[in-house]
Specification:
Radius of gyration: 49 Å
CATH topology of the largest domain: Immunoglobulin-like
Largest sheet: 9 strands, mixed
Number of domains: 2
Order of helices and strands: HHHEEEEEEEEEEE
Strand content: 25-35%
Distance between the termini: 160 Å
Length: 260
């Protein structure tokens, strides 16, 4: 095909032929064109919040709220806020626990006021039985003895104190000693061994008696006796008003003596 153009050629090509197809093979790149590197778009705050977990969102909101609150406080208000935070943090570790008041004590032969009675404790004795003259008040019991305390009681109230079962039969009791209160109900007058009933303003010597196991107390032991404080009020069981034990008390310690 001399003198005729070759339709497969493009010019001006490497051989100087007449221009033909602009997309001729020789004009195409030999290899694939390199791709431009993808540039990540900046992550918006909305996108970050959307991808955050529930806990992250919660704490982020709380932090923003705290910052906004603190920004509007004066110096004085900030100090007041700090004090409140410290108080509650201390309470979480027991810093606000109620302090137990120290136990009150008194000594033998020393006056002690319970609110209703003034008590002067004299002595404590351990005896196998209690008699008055020829009468047996508390008889011998196998395996048991009687722990007796002699005290002077003055009625400071405006009503007689009969030491009944509602108001409390005993103005004191031994601590850490298993006991039973024998009948008839104590206390009893030292003068005639009858049941005590002290009128307002009257002072009387009484004996307080507890039945204890043989091995619970020995002569020479130091025994603590607890005396509850008393207050006047209404009985919860509906029997009127009178003196009742409270939750506070005082202790006295006595050395147990042998029978006289």
């Amino acid at each position: 095909m001399d003198g005729e153009p070759d339709p497969t050629l493009s010019g001006p090509g490497p051989g100087g032929e007449t221009p033909d197809d602009p997309n001729a093979a020789w004009r195409r790149p030999v290899g694939p064109e390199p791709l431009a590197a993808a540039v990540p778009a900046p992550e918006s705050a909305t996108s970050t919040a959307a991808n955050a977990g529930p806990a992250d969102n919660f704490f982020s909101r709380r932090i923003l709220e705290v910052k906004a609150t603190l920004a509007g406080l004066t110096i004085k208000q900030m100090w007041q806020t700090l004090v409140v935070v410290v108080v509650f943090a201390t309470a979480g570790f027991g810093g606000l626990d109620t302090v137990t008041p120290p136990v009150k004590t008194f000594k033998p032969e020393e006056k002690h006021d319970t609110g209703e009675l003034t008590i002067v404790v004299k002595r404590a004795r351990l005896v196998p039985e209690i008699t008055f003259g020829s009468r047996v008040i508390y008889k011998k019991e196998p395996g048991r003895q009687y722990l007796a305390v002699v005290a002077t009681l003055t009625n400071n109230g405006a009503v007689p104190e009969k030491f009944g079962p509602i108001s409390g039969t005993m103005p004191m009791a031994p601590v850490g000693v298993p006991y039973q209160v024998p009948m008839p109900a104590p206390p009893m007058r030292v003068s005639d061994a009858t049941r005590a009933a002290i009128q307002p303003g009257i002072t009387d010597d009484v004996a307080l008696v507890w039945s204890v196991p043989d091995n619970a107390v020995r002569v020479g032991d130091q025994i603590t006796f607890r005396t509850p404080d008393r207050e006047y009020g209404s009985y919860t069981v509906g029997y009127g008003d009178g003196w009742m034990n409270t939750n506070t008390y005082a202790d006295v310690t006595l050395t147990v003596e042998a029978p006289k």
